[in-house]
Fold:
Amino acid sequence: MELEYMIDVRNVSKQYRKTLANDNVTIGVKSGELAMLVGPNGAGKSTLIKSICGLLRFTGYIAIDGHPNKTKEAKQALGYIPEMPALYPMLTVWEHLEFIAKAYRLPDTWKSLADDLVDKFELTDKKNKLGKELSKGMQQKVSICCGLLTSPKAIIFDEPLIGLDPHAIRELKNIIIKLKELGCAVLISTHMIESMEENWDVTYIMNKGKVQAVVRPSDLESGDSLEDMFFKITEPDKKDIEV
Amino acid sequence: MNALLYVIRKRLKNSFIETIHNPGRLILSLILIGLIGFTVVTSAITGMSKQSLYSFNSMIFALIVFALVTLYFGIYIKTSFASGDSIFDMSDVNIMFTAPVKPQLIMVYGVSNMLKTAFVAAFFILFQASTLKDLGVNFGGLLITVAVFILTILLMSILSIVIYSNLKNSNKRKAVVVVISIAIFIPAVVAFLSNFLGGADPLDALTSLAKSNLFYATPIAGWSAGATYFLVFKEYAKGFIYLGLIIACTIGLFVFYMKTNVDYFEDVLVASETSFEKKRAVSEGNINSLDIATTGKVKVRGTGIKGFGAKTFFYKHMRETFRANKFGVFGVSSIMYVAIAVVYGFLGKGEAGLERVMIVTLLGFMIFMQLFMVGQGRGLKELYSHFIFMVPESSFKKIVWSNLEVVVKAFGEALVSFAIVGVICKANIFMIVFSIIAFCTYTLLLVSINYLFMKWSGVEVNSGLLMIIYSLIAMLIIAPGVVLGFVVGFLFSGGLGAAFAMTMGILVFAAWCLVISFVLFAMSRGALDNSDIQVMPSSK
Structure:
């Protein structure tokens, strides 16, 4: 039977003490699809992403490539680039990639892919630099390389463009398009609504822990942008502030 | 000035309100106050050891005060070398530095923040009421000790700002401060060495030192010890002289500071921004950023990571550990254990049977300290990063390999410490070997308790109240092992000798820890799949 969604999230709820961060959320991302998760601060986007990645406990059902998200098969299929690059200060850039390659038991060919990624993100001369010696933008680039090295079937980016320089932003956008073409399911959480405007297939607009709307490009009325749609849904009563 | 007082008042008030609204913090505070009250009251109403001036125990008291103040002296000198990030928050930099307030007053406000540490240390002294009672310090003496200590901390705080404001990032000036800070202790050290090399026991050499005026002449640490010691033991004339020295020096430094033209804003700015970024990163889950502050310039020599799958975590930890520290797994705790081992070694020398007592005492001390040290391992820190959750290996394997580093460290520390005691006081080799094994299996047990705790509660042990609960649980779990060890030791003590009996007792304790740790590890299977990624509690 063919899999409908590579990233399959059904009725997921997550409660932090008194706060219901995710309330019965259902989303799905197909292979070769680019999905955006947008919403104001505190909407529950990062919580949902962390739940999908198996970093939080939750109620409901999450599967990656048809396997429950905490199984080895699901983990092997999933890549994750967190908002805050969590590098090890005492490992070099190359050792980060080596660590991922060995922990994920990648075949020896990982080195050529790693070289390619390092080159694309202009990190070649920084291969032997320690994590603690890198600027935040550089750390983000290494974090992206680590997430892509395993050639995942599904990949999740949490605010990927923050801290990147224009060259890296362009490279990342190209890579995302390439991943999509190769059949990878891509889920991007972002505040920058316009950042992926030309390439998205589906956008989930979250607010107050719930998915308020599922928008496809065909749903936009002519002349309307995703941003207009976003504000209509998240701030229905507010009018434009006149300056 | 009013603005500064307002901020200080509001900070205190809000911190109090936060404590009331945070059940964990409230319970912890109440437990602490209750324990201190209990200790102080029981020490006040029970009989006490009568000690005369210059008796052995009273000299120990003077030495303890000297050592405590010396420790804080080192901390304050180090603070004065820091770039201001330990004195000011980013909010202070953004709001205070741009406000029309004199820089000297802002610095005084910064120091008032640091005084919190003085109160923490004063609490620590109150906790020691029953111990101090054995050294001849009654309830009144306890209050004198705390009062003089707080005054000394105030002096050191002002000294640290004076140094800080006048360093102006100059390495030459820093070197001068280091030399002076060490030089003031040289007379006392020389006096101790001449006693020790003259054939005296280390402890006798120390107590003889504490009887000499040279000891009390040591600036700050000696004055504080002198003021405390002589006032407690009613030698008021001497006591007030040393107290006067502390007060005069405090006032003198304060006046000097207020009259100097200080410009420290630029230095503080960069350091506070860096510190703020680091705290933010930690609160957002990147606990590894803490390492950045604790290590200086690192030379990358050997590179590469061995292993496959879950094993990679162990090899990665070893690579990080050896890169961060030339001595590998040996750190501050190792130095402390070795220092204690040397002392115990000398104390156990000579009298037959005393060496066994010293080995068991050292094992007990290390077991107690390991409760707090085990959390320093990279395995538990790994829980703050997403990699350990996402690597496609079994949760159990990842936990085991990720925590092997802390067991290797325990083995290294136990090997060196027990070997030192053993060599100095010529202890039984089997007793040494089994003590090393016992310490390692006990460490394994603590790690297993942590993961089981995490599986059940969903959180790692990282805050005060949890730490108390964790410690109590750990003590309850090891208690049967200790009792069993004593029982077996007692059973064997008949014909086979005390050394054999104690060795068997330690072996039984080690076996208990090993078996229970396996049981707990088995029970904590899937802990990573049943808990949330850990987040450092952000507090200031």
Summary: Chain B has a mean pLDDT of 82. Chain B is about 75% helix and 0% strand. The radius of gyration of chain B is 26 Å.
